User: Which sequence fits this backbone?
């Protein structure tokens, strides 16, 4: 099945504890140095590396969390079978010892595992741990954040401790990408059964969990027995600072060393800070507006022309030009240019900005102007800026908009609830850079997050497109179905794409190797001290 493996690699390349595992936590060390800016140059070995997060993490179980901040933490503690190389785009074996072997029909996948690796609790990493992890992902009662990762897996067998065989129920064109997804990181069966990994994580990764204060911070320390060598940076604290200006102030004073997310309007301020570097990296990320067509606060959202008018009044070009200052590109397709399945034809489904056209639709239906619609916006800096801009657009067009700002953690839950909002803002960083892995977790009626409620008839069509896009290794068929799904979402105004993002971040210049990959994740093990 070399054809399938080559296809999947090509799809990506073309897109460019100290105590945590025993169920206890250790308080922060009040004597630990804060920040990496030390007098006389480079930080001292052992200096605490301070990371400022502007959005809160929700937990430390990689199978049950899918928000960016939680992934930032979990990517240091846990590991997947494969990792997408941030430079080459190829799949590098991580916990796997080599690339998988496929049967001729693509229905059997054999993965050889690295030997001698242990979880942070001292138990062995082996094929049974991999099998256990994917059984959890498959179990509907477990509550996996990305159950779709295991949809194609029918059964698994472990012929020996270092070999696992996956028997599939369909030829999965993105199985290797799924093995590299952060939501398929391998967990310790013993730890998962003995403790709540959401608060006491335990993986095989280069960093161990030390302690956490809910809603405040998490402390990690280097795994000195890490199978690939101990990391250069020894101690790390990630602190939640939701006010971006406060986080930047900590960069100024040296109390913070790294901000993974920096908004455009703060770039010039940070560029003026001595010893701090502002940098960017390519992102496979899209920001979009979701418009519910059912399970709405206001029944008028069921009217396609009403949703179309909402989409028409969104001046995304203006937002990108005046607010993003070149650090993003306007999105005319749900499938972005860095995602497998995209072509220029996708952009033909775009509903163009037309303020006068939106006003004309409302003028033809004057009763619609009286209908209050609820615009639910997460309270993080990026979303607030987007929300305020587009609320002004909607009001200008004549819509009666109620704006509600909601805490990020609350939004993650409440945005899935029935009858909670009419319109919201969301984003997706595509870890696998594959279109199916964008469409299914966001828009499939049963396998997806369930935020954008779509009427049954249209949902059935979208679901079929998604299924047909993943049950073959034929590139042409996959692309055809992904583009069909894209067209349904846009032409029916369930999704209005806004912009394709760029990773913008800043860090203490005394460190090196600091970056974010296209999926938005950073890896502390890649970082070190500048000479």
Assistant:
């Amino acid at each position: 099945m070399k054809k399938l493996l080559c296809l999947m690699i090509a799809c990506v390349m073309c897109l460019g504890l100290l105590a945590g595992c025993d169920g206890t936590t250790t308080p922060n060390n009040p004597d630990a140095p804060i920040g990496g800016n030390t007098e006389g140059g480079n930080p001292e070995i052992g200096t605490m590396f301070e990371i400022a997060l502007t959005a809160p993490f929700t937990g430390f179980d990689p199978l049950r969390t899918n928000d960016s901040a939680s992934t930032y933490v979990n990517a240091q503690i846990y590991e997947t079978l494969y990792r997408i190389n941030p430079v080459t785009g190829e799949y590098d074996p991580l916990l796997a010892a080599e690339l998988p072997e496929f049967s001729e029909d693509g229905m059997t996948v054999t993965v050889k595992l690295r030997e001698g690796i242990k979880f942070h609790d001292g138990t062995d990493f082996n094929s049974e741990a991999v099998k256990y992890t994917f059984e959890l992902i498959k179990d509907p009662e477990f509550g996996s954040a990305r159950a779709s990762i295991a949809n194609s897996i029918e059964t698994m067998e472990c012929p020996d401790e270092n070999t696992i065989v996956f028997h599939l129920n369909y030829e999965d064109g993105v199985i290797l990408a799924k093995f590299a997804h952060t939501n398929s990181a391998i967990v310790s069966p013993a730890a998962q059964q003995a403790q709540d990994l959401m608060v006491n994580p335990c993986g095989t990764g280069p960093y161990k969990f030390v302690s956490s204060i809910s809603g405040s911070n998490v402390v990690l320390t280097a795994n000195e027995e890490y199978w690939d060598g101990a990391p250069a940076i020894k101690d790390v604290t990630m602190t939640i600072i939701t006010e971006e200006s406060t986080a930047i102030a900590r960069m100024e004073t040296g109390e913070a060393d790294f901000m993974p997310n920096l908004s455009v309007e703060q770039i010039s301020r940070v560029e003026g800070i001595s010893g701090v570097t502002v940098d960017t990296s390519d992102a496979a990320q899209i920001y979009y507006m979701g418009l519910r067509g059912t399970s709405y606060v206001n029944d008028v959202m069921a009217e396609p022309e009403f949703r179309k008018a909402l989409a028409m009044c969104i001046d995304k070009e203006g937002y990108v030009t005046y607010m993003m200052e070149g650090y993003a590109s306007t999105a005319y397709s749900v499938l972005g240019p860095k995602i497998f399945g995209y072509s220029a034809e996708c952009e033909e489904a775009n509903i163009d900005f037309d303020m006068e056209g939106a006003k004309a639709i409302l003028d033809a239906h004057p009763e619609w102007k009286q209908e209050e619609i609820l615009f639910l916006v997460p309270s993080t800096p990026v979303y607030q800026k987007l929300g305020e801009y587009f609320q002004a657009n909607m009001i200008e067009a004549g819509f009666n908009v109620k704006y509600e700002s909601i805490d990020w953690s609350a939004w993650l839950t409440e945005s899935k609830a029935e009858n909670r909002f009419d319109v919201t803002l969301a984003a997706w960083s595509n870890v696998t850079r594959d279109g199916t892995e964008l469409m299914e977790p966001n828009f499939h009626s049963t396998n997806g997050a369930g935020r954008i409620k779509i009427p049954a008839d249209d949902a059935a069509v979208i679901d079929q497109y998604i299924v047909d896009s993943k049950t073959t290794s034929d590139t042409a068929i996959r692309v055809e179905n992904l583009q069909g799904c894209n067209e349904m979402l846009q032409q029916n105004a369930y999704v209005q794409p806004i912009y394709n993002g760029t990773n913008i971040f800043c860090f203490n210049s005394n460190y090196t190797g600091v970056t974010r990959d296209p999926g938005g994740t950073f890896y502390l093990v890649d970082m070190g001290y500048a000479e």
